[in-house]
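lol forgot to send this yesterday, sorry. struct tokens for the thing we talked abt
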């Protein structure tokens, strides 16, 4: 995973796991079905507007609330290319990486983009490329990038067991 380019959806602070993936859908375990409810707690029409490759840009404390891994799973299954947020809840951060959902931490990005903009994230260079200049961010550690590139922790582990790098 070198870059992600996509349309931006701008969200606020404290986007919790219950609005990312509402609790009433917890019995659903098929990721493709879970994707049909991604961010429905913010807007019931959101899942139908979300397209493969879109990028979520949010404020601080993204993924707060319960520890449900389904919040990260539904975003990944919906085709979200990455989430850029000012900060993340620790458990969401780990769940997202485990699911293979790319995360970038940037407080500045939300103030510089508007909904519908197209941005490019260069993970290797630690840059978010905007029409009016770049924003630098601290890249994830190499071992975390390996997990993302493999598609998540389970796929990364399978690869390691099979003798791959």
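and heres what i got for the seq, position by position
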């Amino acid at each position: 995973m070198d870059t992600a380019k996509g349309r931006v959806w701008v969200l606020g602070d404290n986007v919790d796991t219950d609005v990312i993936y509402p609790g009433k859908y917890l019995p659903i375990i098929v990721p493709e079905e879970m994707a049909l409810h991604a961010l429905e707690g913010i807007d019931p029409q959101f899942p139908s507007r979300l397209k493969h490759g879109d990028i979520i840009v949010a404020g601080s404390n993204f993924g707060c609330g319960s520890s449900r891994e389904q919040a990260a799973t539904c975003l990944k299954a919906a085709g979200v290319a990455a989430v850029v947020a000012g900060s993340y809840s620790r458990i969401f951060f780990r769940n997202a990486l485990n699911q293979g959902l790319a995360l970038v931490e940037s407080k500045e990005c939300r103030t510089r983009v508007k909904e519908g903009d197209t941005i490019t994230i260069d993970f290797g260079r630690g840059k978010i490329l905007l029409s009016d200049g770049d924003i630098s961010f601290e890249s994830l550690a190499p071992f975390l990038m390996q997990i993302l590139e493999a598609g998540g922790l389970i796929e990364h582990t399978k690869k390691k067991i099979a003798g791959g790098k």
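Helices lie at 17-20, 31-34, 46-49, 70-77, 90-99, 109-112, 142-150, 153-161. anyway ping me if u want another try
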